[in-house]
Amino acid sequence: MNSLNSEAFALFGQHILWSDMIGNLFGLAALALGWRRSIWTWPVQFLAGLILFGAFFGHLTGSAGKQAVVMAVALYGWWQWQRGKDQGEDGHIAVRFATWRERGVMVAAAAAGTVAVALLFKAYPTLSWDPWPDAYIFVGTVVAMYAQARGMVEFWFAWLLVDLVGVPLNFANGYAFSGFVYVIYGALVLWGMRDWWLRSRNSARPVMEGAPA
Question: N or C terminus of the chain with fewer C-beta within 10 Å?
């Protein structure tokens, strides 16, 4: 992993690490696969988390811990989509909007989790150099991936909120490629959100008796 943590090249005065670049390219691929509702989004996300874990370990322990959680949630997502892959008309997982109760639970969990993780980071400063934004990204990523695993359109909204903090934080930490990729994430999230939104509306639309499916 030492070779992966070496510099690949410099871009706009920023030093790009191999591990940072490769891990985030896999992450970008995972997001694109998630947009297409391909079950392969999860093993690719797991691999991205594994590479980024190696990139952050020993430098940003909190970020490395986030990647460990990402890998665990990726396994959960794989299991969920394996169970529900035949729910959609095209053989993929069906997508939907969360209920108001589910939204409330996710917002409450995100708020409480961010506070708890930030306090943990503050109690152990070696875990993170900037506890609050790091905790926000940590918890927001888990909530977003959970919503994705459940086929909720809100997954895309959660990723947008993570991106708003993730871009400046990655640049500040010296992970420039992560920052650039987060910008591309934003564009993919908007396209993916539109696609899932339309699919959820189509799947919820009642079919008139005698009309073609």
Answer: C
